[in-house]
Design goal:
six-stranded mixed beta sheet; single chain; 9 strands; alpha+beta; 10 helices
Amino acid sequence: MTQPTLIRREGAHLRTALGLANRSVPVLPLRAGKAPFGNCPACRDNTCGGRPNMKTPGPCDCPRPCHGWAAATTDPEVITGPAWAPGWKQAAAVAYHPGGIGLTVVDLDHADAVAWARRTLPATRTVPTTRGEHWIYRGAMPSVNAVRDGVDIKSTMVYARWLGPGSGTMTALPEAVRALIAKKPSPVRPVAVPLAAGGGACRHRKPAYLERGIAMAEQRITEAVGGVHATVYRTFLAVLSTHGRCGCLADAHAARLFAAAQARGESARHCVDAWSNARTALGM
């Protein structure tokens, strides 16, 4: 099928995607419910084993990442190719990777969040959303959800819905937005770590042993380049395997790991699930 024929058949979303790609904006199709399609036939419907909502790349054997923000591309051959053809037929929206073009989207999810932004942040380009607004700044930064009520930061390693070019002059990413990560971390749900049946021998003869292990785990999560969800799970598994059977691992240690994961975009629920799955895998 020729590209013009495909464009006529698949409609406005595909035309929008190709127009954005032509302006060097990496794009991907979204299903209803804001979940993306894979760009690889073998991974369609998440058969590769990535995260259930496919919002970040999962472990798979594809020659390139095929889920979520990592699937976003400017290549018209991929956009109009056979792997994405079913996606455009069912697409409910077009998404793009803000960090991939050096942008940050402050996603304001309701009227109170918009009012806060107008009082607090420098004016920039704004795009109306269903319930609030996207404020778009020049400059990339880590993406973090729920930095305050109704406010998400979407930049690197995430996608955002394309809702039009918006209005106003785009300005440089201000320190007030960067500071939201440091000053307003996502709330962390503490998790109690029970002793294994019958207890276990304590290896932490010095507090520094446990402290060093937690610090290394935080660093591993923070420095993850891709597949953050899988990295978080493997790190939790390693920490629990080494430090979780004698009772020395406390809620405060779990909270530090959860905070590191949430700073990389993981939700509290995903942290709890990863921690629980790791404990189950270890028979704890």
